[in-house]
Amino acid sequence: MNALKEALRKIPGTTVFDADHSRRGYALNMWCMTLQFEANRTAFKTDERGYIEKHSLEDGQCQAILDRDYNRLLELGGNIYFLSKLAAVDGHSFQQIAARMCGVPVEEFQQMMIKGGRKPDVSVKQDKEQ
Amino acid sequence: MAKIIGGVATSHVGALGVAIDNGLTGNDYWRPAFSGFEFSKKWISEQRPDVVVLVYNDHAAAFSLDIIPTFAIGCAERFQPADEGWGRRPVPTIEGHSELAWHIAESVILDEFDITIVNKLDVDHGLTVPLSMMFGQPSAWPCRVIPLAVNVVQFPPPTGNRCYSLGKAIRRAVESFDQDLKVMVWGTGGMSHQLQGTRAGLINKEFDNGFMDLLTDSPEEAAKIQHIDYLREAGSEGIELVMWLVMRGALSSTARAVHRFYHVPASNTALGHMIFEDR
Q1: Is B193 among the residues known to form the active site?
Q2: How many CB pairs under 8 A join A and B?
Q3: Extradiol ring-cleavage dioxygenase class III enzyme subunit B domain: which residues (chain B) (predicted)?
Q4: pTM
């Protein structure tokens, strides 16, 4: 199990949602679940900070939500399927938040996909260094 | 007695549902993706299954982090499409087959697959998109559907081998059900894709096509693929492919692939689709 966890950590540009992440991200991900309801989406849009502060999140998680910093949210225990509910409030698709996580304009990300996507062993950062 | 007549594998990309619901399937971007299902729609209208056991994963819709069942079977009479954050998909209510679902649950549990029984379940795009891809936009779905949810969100998902074995147990269950029903098992999700982090957008055509080859000719070999290989080669969300193995396990060893389709991209994902006939 430990050897497997080590191998998983070595996959570039990837956060595997394991027990450690799930424990850290429980409150954050469950907060995202509240956005499944239209009334809550409206309340969040009306007063983002106020709506977040009603829930017991870490300060860093609150700020990352306000910043829509998805990479940071992943680091702080967020899971992409839960975080997609935050994106949905903004009317953003998976492709839009993927582009954001890769630090490229959405048009550039879309073109990369049309050309066949990213090779499995290359992260965006490595791409740019090559 | 009930019998399994075939299996379908397909990606369940949410954006496919958005394209259907918004009438975009004929545009330049989506037409090539949907063209791979023209054969399938004709085929399914001839096969006319009574029940589909639809293997999919919930994407933080019905299950959250409060309860995370590794395998769960929907035993209710009907299921509503879930609100995943932007309202419910405008698709018909899914009519279940409670009697067969309960029979499968009882049978596989006695067969040592300790599946979770669910009586209230909203089903998300993982289940409704495959129905739309195969049946289009009918006013009511033309068959009953038994949702079978597999956890692939929280690591670790069940192994490919466990999924393949569950498929075999589902076959034994179906074949011991005392009604003349034509049953299909569908495995959904995949193929290679990664939605998160700086490696988002990953596509691995070689892995995907190799997987479809193995599923056709040597499913036991496909069942041996390890978690690390799915995650590394097919991306963090590509591990959904273990669900295709439930479908393949439910078919006979002599089942024949009658259709195979592969297209990149469907949004961030490699779209894969196969049809098997049992014999």
Answers
A1: yes
A2: 158
A3: 8-271
A4: 0.96
